[in-house]
Prior knowledge:
By secondary structure, this protein is of the alpha/beta class. The protein has helices spanning 8-17, 87-90, 107-119, and strands at 80-84, 97-101, 123-124.
Amino acid sequence: MAEAVFEKKKLRKLKRRSRHPKFFRSNFGRRERKRVKDNWRKPRGIDNKKKDKQKTYGAEPNIGYGTPAAIRGFHPSGMREVRVLNVGMLAKVPKHTAVRIAACVGARKRAEIESKAKELSLKVLN
């Protein structure tokens, strides 16, 4: 298991390694194909150049572009995220963890959670 919080330098170095190009759909950006949106879809045609992995047609997503396992699931602040629904859940949250209050929580309970998180010195993301 990776450490709960990384040093800023180490996190920045790992993030730099995990960059990847933007993956466009086949034929996106062609003048005569305005109806093609930019969101990724796997090319499946028999004569498709992108499917044949010709470099000029852009990169395809593959396992090599994945985020390093050491920082996968971390918030950009360098902490793990935990979703919280009530004040009781805060007691089970480990140190060096960021708290995200669920969307279904109302204003009164949200205020209680925020005050308790401040007592326990936990970072609230939303």
